[in-house]
Amino acid sequence: MKIDIIISADYIRKDIIENKVVVVIDMLRATSVITTALMNGCKKVIPTLTIEEALKLKASIGEKECILGGERKALKIDGFDLSNSPLEYTKEVVEGKTIIITTTNGTRTLTSCLEAKRIFVACMLNVSAIAEKLLSLNEDVVIVNAGTNGQFSMDDFICSGAIIKALIEKCDKLELTDLSKTALLSFESNPNIIDFIKEARHYNVMMSLGLINDVGYCMKKDITTIVPEYKGGEII
Ligand code: MLT
């Protein structure tokens, strides 16, 4: 079982992901939002690349059933119901609803992985559940970090390390690329991941916007066993 990492959406290549099991991470915050919404009982999450696509989709599915969420520049989009804060996706708000979400990096990354065989959605909230799923499949895996505006992002990278750590604890037959080994070492040397993440650019953007509670929430490891999968245009 080979584990490789793609460091940001700009580096996704068809020949690397085609027919592979892919795990998409945008821990601050898109994949944490998606995981939380599903954990709190939403029907499905539909990622869209653009705001226009999201609005059109809501109009076609129906106002009552749908919630529009996401961000541009980390802020709520005009006319949308929710921002990209996982804390807004409570059971009371999302249960039984279809969430249509568009974000700068997370949904762009998801929609760029369509050539993969399977696409799972990961964050710190579901590290162990994702690892269990991957072990049960026993296939080569490409962990795709969303990154930030095409650039490498420390937060997604250490989350990849957390998943790899959970994998090696249960399997001694992993083949790690140098990137995967570095992600693992980053996680092992920073058991309190905040010490690592606080150096990240996107962490500091979150702080400057007063989103400390979102960041604190997204760091929580293994609060759910949900393993969201993106297939047929929907995450369930
Ligand atoms: C994204 O998808 O670009 C991020 O989740 C941005 C954010 O944290 O709002």
From TrEMBL:
According to UniProt, the name of this protein is Probable 2-phosphosulfolactate phosphatase
Q: What class of enzyme is it?
A: hydrolase
Q: Which NCBIfam families match?
A: PRK00886.1-4 (NF002055)
InterPro entries cross-referenced by the UniProt entry? ComB-like, ComB-like_sf
Q: Alphabetically list the UniProt keywords.
A: Hydrolase, Magnesium
Highest taxon in the source lineage: Bacteria
Q: Provide the cofactor list for this protein.
A: Mg(2+)
The reaction(s) annotated as catalysed by this protein in its Swiss-Prot or TrEMBL entry are: (2R)-O-phospho-3-sulfolactate + H2O = (2R)-3-sulfolactate + phosphate
Could you tell me the EC number(s) of this protein? 3.1.3.71
Cite a single Pfam family from the UniProt record.
2-ph_phosp
UniProt similarity note: Belongs to the ComB family.
Organism placement in taxonomy:
Bacteria, Bacillati, Bacillota, Clostridia, Eubacteriales
Question: Recorded GO terms, molecular function?
Answer: 2-phosphosulfolactate phosphatase activity; magnesium ion binding; sulfopyruvate decarboxylase activity
Q: Which organism is it from?
A: Clostridium paraputrificum
